[in-house]
Design a protein that fits this description.
With about 300 residues, this protein is mainly α. Helix content is about 70%, strand content about 5%.
Length: about 300
């Protein structure tokens, strides 16, 4: 392609939800409420797991990290979504767009790995309760969490750096409600097979790898639960795992639908709808499913709230 047709793009226009302009005010209110609930729920969990001594265990250490991660993850995309709903044209600078791509994929990768670590922690707790404190020592679970953050935040650097060096053919309109790799590659003049393949393999490595660990851990837990002689005990355990698996299924299902598939036959309207689930819906559900339904967390919360009384 002639280099004269290449344009140095300094900013991008985020299209947002052009087909929903007639109901953008109710959607803005709904998204704002869900975002606020997500922030409050996750902040409560971060606070309670940090300052309540009875929750200083590996499971709640993971939950505290997970809730902090959810606050960061939703804050990468949801504010942009709110701006999209209130403006006809949302302009984002080139560098800010790349930063949003990096943090979205980096924090999303950390979330996948933390989900796998949490599932493994529950597996050890149920399969080897007598050796649990030895296996999941403070050194082990802190290092495990640290590696989740390191791997998740390092791997997306490669595709983001490559994307920053690409040429764009005049158009700077991103067909999404935030900056993402695949919509940006549609605007590129160069051949994008390398970038698409690299993004596919990195996403597959994190998503499929962590999903495999998560599912294997839960299957092993279910097999152990089936051996519980008490029907009431089995029912209680299965009700807990069913809610956990629902959140895991929604998150991994929507992420794999977009990132672990061929990229040439994309329906971006469908992608936008699916992206809303893992950007907004699951972060609202996670505090309820993982912690606020937990008896220990509720007891600790009451203890903190009514300590002076």
């Amino acid at each position: 392609m002639d280099l004269s047709n290449h344009t140095r793009v300094n900013e991008f226009i985020i299209t947002g939800f052009p087909t929903l302009q007639n109901i953008r005010v109710p959607l803005f209110v709904l998204v704002s409420i869900m975002y606020t609930l997500s922030l409050i729920g996750n902040m409560v969990i971060v606070f309670i797991t940090r300052y309540e001594p009875s929750l200083h265990t590996p499971m709640y250490f993971f939950l505290g990290n997970f809730s902090f991660l959810e606050i960061c993850f939703t804050s990468v995309t949801v504010p942009t979504m709110l701006v999209d709903l209130m403006r006809e044209k949302n302009i984002v600078s080139f560098n800010n767009c790349l930063a949003q791509i990096y943090f979205f994929h980096g924090l999303g990768g950390v979330e996948c790995l933390l989900l796998a670590a949490m599932a493994y922690d529950r597996y050890v707790a149920i399969r080897s309760p007598l050796r649990y404190n030895t296996i999941m020592s403070s050194t082990v679970y802190i290092q495990l969490t640290a590696w989740c953050w390191i791997i998740g935040l390092v791997l997306p650097l490669i595709p983001v750096i490559l994307i920053s060096r690409l040429n764009y053919c005049g158009s700077n309109v991103v067909d999404h409600f935030f900056c993402d790799i695949l919509p940006l590659l549609r605007l590129v003049c160069n051949r994008t097979q390398l970038n698409e393949m690299l993004s596919f393999f990195i996403c597959s490595f994190i998503l499929v790898g962590s999903f495999t660990i998560t599912i294997v851990s839960y299957v092993a837990i279910i097999i152990t639960v089936l051996r519980i002689p008490s029907p009431a005990g089995r029912k209680k355990a299965f009700s807990t795992f069913a809610s956990h698996l629902t959140v895991v299924g929604i998150f991994y299902g929507t992420m794999m639908f977009i990132y672990v598939r061929p990229t040439r036959n994309l329906s971006f309207n469908m992608d936008q709808l699916v992206a809303v689930f893992y950007c907004l819906v699951t972060p609202v559900l996670n505090p309820i499913i993982y912690s606020l339904r937990n008896k220990d967390v509720k007891t600790a919360l009451k203890k903190v709230l009514f300590a002076k009384r």
